[in-house]
Amino acid sequence: MKISIISVGKLKEKYLKQGIEEYIKRMGPYAKVDIQEVSDEKAPENLSEAQMEEVKQKEGERILSKIGADTYVITLEIEGKMITSEKLAEQLDQLATYGNSKIAFVIGGSLGISEDVQKRSDFALSFSKMTFPHQMMRLMLLEQVYRAFRIMRGEPYHK
């Protein structure tokens, strides 16, 4: 299985980079993982609704350019579906069983993801109704994907 994490913006925090590297290493026996960063759109602090949509649209175009036609897309969205770690494991297992070996998780920028990216999504996943820094979501997502593979294989994991 090939897992891509497509994320808006550069990761600068050393502690997050270290955590991400650790989980990518742990994922080695289960799946090939790659992280693709797309640049975030520079924008002033106070944006109108139209300007916000324009920023999301430009970032969305960059995201979509990284997604292949044969890729199953899971977007991280506040309004997505909240599921358990076990349910994520079950879903990834079913995808692999039915030939979806390429999965892309999409983490939008600080304003979220564009409507076009939402339309391309096969599943909208929510970690919480709370807002998290999109840079931190990479680490949280990788931990959950790693946990899902451990669950699928019947290997121990912390509850």
UniProtKB/TrEMBL annotation:
Keyword Cytoplasm found: yes
Localization, UniProt: Cytoplasm
Enzyme nomenclature, EC number: 2.1.1.177
Any one GO cellular component localisation term in the record: cytoplasm
Keywords: Cytoplasm, Methyltransferase, rRNA processing, S-adenosyl-L-methionine, Transferase
Keyword Protein transport: no
Superkingdom per UniProt: Bacteria
Gene Ontology MF: a single term: rRNA (pseudouridine-N3-)-methyltransferase activity
Catalysed reactions listed for this entry: pseudouridine(1915) in 23S rRNA + S-adenosyl-L-methionine = N(3)-methylpseudouridine(1915) in 23S rRNA + S-adenosyl-L-homocysteine + H(+)
Residues annotated to bind S-adenosyl-L-methionine: L76, G108, F127, S128, K129, M130, T131, F132
InterPro entries (alphabetical): Alpha/beta_knot_MTases (IPR029028), RlmH-like (IPR003742), tRNA_m1G_MTases_N (IPR029026)
Quaternary structure, from the entry: Homodimer.
Membership in a protein family: Belongs to the RNA methyltransferase RlmH family.
General function of this protein: Specifically methylates the pseudouridine at position 1915 (m3Psi1915) in 23S rRNA.
HAMAP family: 23SrRNA_methyltr_H
Protein name stated in the entry: Ribosomal RNA large subunit methyltransferase H
Organism: Pontibacillus yanchengensis Y32
Gene: rlmH
